[in-house]
Amino acid sequence: MSQERPSHPPSFYSQIDVSQLGALPARHAASEASAEIIHLLRQILAAQERQISLLQELIHHWTQPQRQRLHELAQWRQANPELAKRCRTAAEALAKIHTEYLHTLTEEVVENMEVLQEGEFMLSEFIDRFGPRIAHLNGILQLLYQLGYSPEQPSKPS
């Protein structure tokens, strides 16, 4: 059961036979090739224009809810300018508290790393102690920042 193997390895490149084009008159072959190239380029252009149109629709669809939310927040800020200013002040103050809380949390992790790694009970206690508080604090901070800051308002450097 011996099968003959080809004497040369298979080629990864294809070959194009252009001998028929040489048989046609040069001017006729060139005009046909140009016409086909122009036709293909027009098809590519039409496909790209359609793709651009679809992408624009997709972007509009994805950004519409965000624009609506920004518009509603801007209306709320205009209706409640004093409260928006207080939200901004509260967010800045709470951000400092948030930073201190994160500092405490990270110290606790570093000091008790071995105990947290080894004991499921201690890890659960740590999560119960810090988890809900940091999650709620993050939510409140996000709300205050959204209500207190408008896109055209630069935030103060800390």
What does this molecule look like?
This protein is an all-alpha fold and 158 residues long. Helices cover 79% and strands 0% of the residues. Helix 2 packs across helix 3 (81-111) and helix 3 runs antiparallel to helix 5. It starts with 18 loop residues before the first helix and ends in a 10-residue tail after the last helix. The relative contact order is 0.07. The model has no long low-confidence stretch (mean pLDDT 84).
Count of alpha/pi helices:
5
Number of strands: 0
Are there runs of 5+ residues with pLDDT below 50, and where? Answer: none
Helicity range of the residues? over 70%
Bin the strand percentage: under 5%
Shape call: elongated
Mean pLDDT: 84
Please tell me how large the radius of gyration is: 34 Å
Write the H/E string, N to C: HHHHH
**Major sheet attributes:** none
Class based on secondary structure composition and strand pairing: mainly alpha
Distance between the termini: 82 Å
